[in-house]
Every structure is written in structure tokens, then in C-alpha cells.
């Protein structure tokens, strides 16, 4: 009989679907990825075709198996990490989505959320139950929009004919041929409908958003038994043993298991997350309290700050302004700037995320003079990632979170200039691991844990290895000047 020695991780991200095979020790074996179309129907609206999410996921999974020359029966377990909050409602009979996926960045429900925010009791109650804020970022208002705007959707939902899921549930449904309708506690914790203390869907929140309970998936542990893939997909069944939101997966992949350990993932957006242990920390400064992972019904919590535009700003410079031929060239351009940059770019293209939460804010480039050119703008775009991170760390510090080290990952961290500037602005040591596909790794480690490959998360974490670290070299005065310039630019956008 063939020995099953590999783990397949599917990492469904905002701009691409990736599949990665790891060895049973968590070593990287092979990867495949496919990008798909971003749809922007109106200002502040962002959609994906649900079918494209599914098709690119299955294509990349098949491609990686072929690349690694492995058959499905050599795969021990499969884990899924996914873009969170993105909302899909599909028909139980056909599996077809009733509308495009409404992406986490989408702001169409800003007015609706604003209305709810006017009631201080509602705001307090939502925060106490979910750890979140009433912002269009999260799934609940997106589900309500779908039920109210797609013909016949509400009637069908009430009749139990529809399913709501974040991307993990949608993929699970399709992988298992419609047999499994579930999510994990981390993904549930991003919907605004899940009580993170009691660990259940909350009837009051469902009533607040007018969402029928029968629409919702079962909530399981992040490492759990989620059924098996239908044999028609890969030629044999594969056990599905982990579902986890991609930022939480990155925390696991970065081995941030001790209280106080922090990671930042810089892909389309930027997400800073700190492990706060077995008890939730309730932020007074608009950070999100969220589930880091749930294993054997034991919850570990985290505090998170979300930046909506990180790598996406570089894509905008490339695709809309045509200032870059490719995003990688941003490094040399940023580096070529001599002296301090007077230009600041505030990338509030889809509003401002944490700690500001201003969905109606829009972007700006300020401080331009006659000498400003491409390199100043590109430098400012990269620098905005560091400044936004500093905004988050300042808010977290006010909540009592202090850290001396930050582990980074995501597509942007190949950019050495960015990581050095980050170390300088944050005055922290920045650590980049050997495997930067930490979301996929986190999902793989949890799937392996569920399968008994590792006796504990700590054992699984032994696969984490440092690739490079960046230490602050900027003077305190210069750091201060840089950051004050950012705060002034930010204030103009907020005003
Ligand atoms: N060398 C680079 N410098 C700056 N940004 C980069 C670089 N390489 C990739 N990126 C950015 O990283 C992002 C892709 O990261 P990834 O982790 O794949 O994103 P996601 O998971 O959100 O789809 C893109 O937005 C891209 O602009
Ligand atoms: O697809 P990513 O990696 O940009 O992650 C998206 C986040 O999960 C949104 O909350």
C-alpha cells in the first residue's frame, strides 16, 4: 500500500488561489497558483465570481499534485486557509452562487452599518459578543444585502434552500460534493454573527441583521474532521482536516503560539495579529478581538488590526498609474530615492481600516513638489505599509500589548527595502521566515495535528526557521519626523 506522507494545503486568497504540498515535517515540497478576476462594479464595491474561486482552487490543487508527481492516495490530509469575511450565498440543489462573492473589501453596506452605529447599546452589545465593530468589512451586512437585493433570495433563505458561507465553507461544500456544510470558529468569528465567548451563532445578532439561522453552516474546531473530498476531484478521497481563516493560519504558520507573539501578513491587505492566549482582550482602541484558533474546543484568542491596502497599492501603481512595469521593481525605485521623502500616499481607496474605521474615506497623495516623480510616489506607497502598521501598533500599545519582535510574511515581504523601512519606523526587529507561505503552512500544520502527525502545536512549530532579520537603524528624530508627516497626511484624508 502507498505510504501517505504529504499534506495538501489550499490557500484561497483575494487575488489568487494557491495549493501547496508539505512533507509530514512541514517542509515545502511544491506549489501551484492561479489568479482570477477582480470585479469593481461601482465605487467601493468589490466582487469575485464564486465559480472562479472554486475553479482556480481545484485547478491549482490538481496542478500541484501533478508538479510534485503525487497521487491523491499519497496525501494524508488536506487543510484550507482562506480570505475571510468574503460572502457567498449559494443554492443547496445546484451549488451555484445566487450572486457574485461580495469581497471583504466591499463597502456597499457602509450606510447600513452607519445607521446601526448610531445606537450606542447596539455597538456595545455587538462588540461584547463578537469582538468586532459594525463595519461593512464583516459578513453580516453583506448577507443582509444579498437577501434584500437578489430576487427571491429572502424567500428561498427562509425556506432553507440557500447556504451562506465564507470561502472555506463554499470550497468544503464543493470538495465534498455537497455533503459537508461547515466552517471553523475563526471564520465564524469574522461574520459579526458569532458569539466568540459562548462559541455559537447568536440569535440576537441574527435578528439584528434579519438573517435566518438555517442559512448558516455548522461551526467546528479549526482542526477537525470535515469529511473527505469527492473521489471525482483527485482520483481518490482525501481527508479534510483543517479549515482556518488565512490570517489566523499565518499566525499558526509563524508559530506564534505564546501569548504576546505577533505576526504581520502583507498581501493584498496587511494584517497584524497578536496571540493573547486563552482569554479575549477587549480593545478600547478599535482593534478586533478574534479567535486565533480552536483545537479540541479550546479557544486561543488574538487581537488584530487590518489594513485594507498593502500590496494592492503596488498593483494600483502598476495597473492604473502605469508607474511600474512589475511590482518587484518598486524596491529599486524606492531605494534610489536620496534623502527623506516629502511625499505621502494614504491608500484609503476602499476606506480606512483599523484603527480608524472610516469606510467613506478615500485615498490621497500629498506633499508633491516640482521635484517629485515616480520614485517619490513609489517610495511613499511602500512606506504607507509601514506607517499603517505603526498606527496599529500604537493602538495595540494603548490596549497594553507590547512586543519586541514582529514576524512577517505574505507576497510583499520579498521586498527588502520595505522590511528595513518597517524595522526603522516600528523600531522593532522584523523576522522573515524561510517559508513565507505561512497561511498554507498553518492550515497544513493543523491538518497534520488532527491526523496525529504532531503531538502538539508546539511540536508542529519546530518547522519554523528564520530566513532573515532586519534591525532598526533610523535615528529616533528621523523616525519621529517621518511618522509625523504621515499623521498629517492621514488627518487630511480623515477630514
Ligand atoms: N516585490 C514586491 N514588492 C512589493 N509588493 C509586492 C512584491 N511582490 C508582490 N507584492 C504584492 O504582494 C501582493 C500579493 O501577495 P499575496 O500574499 O499573494 O496576496 P493575497 O494572498 O492577498 O492574494 C500583491 O498585492 C503584490 O502587489
Ligand atoms: O487574501 P488575503 O491574504 O489578502 O487576506 C484577506 C483577509 O483574510 C481579509 O480579512
Automatic annotation (TrEMBL):
Pfam families: FGGY_C (PF02782), FGGY_N (PF00370). The keyword Transferase applies. It is an enzyme of class 2 (transferase). It comes from the Bacteria. Pathway: Polyol metabolism; glycerol degradation via glycerol kinase pathway; sn-glycerol 3-phosphate from glycerol: step 1/1. One of its GO terms (biological process) is glycerol-3-phosphate metabolic process. It catalyses: glycerol + ATP = sn-glycerol 3-phosphate + ADP + H(+). The keyword ATP-binding applies. Residues 6-253 form the Carbohydrate kinase FGGY N-terminal domain. This is glycerol kinase. It comes from Colwellia chukchiensis.
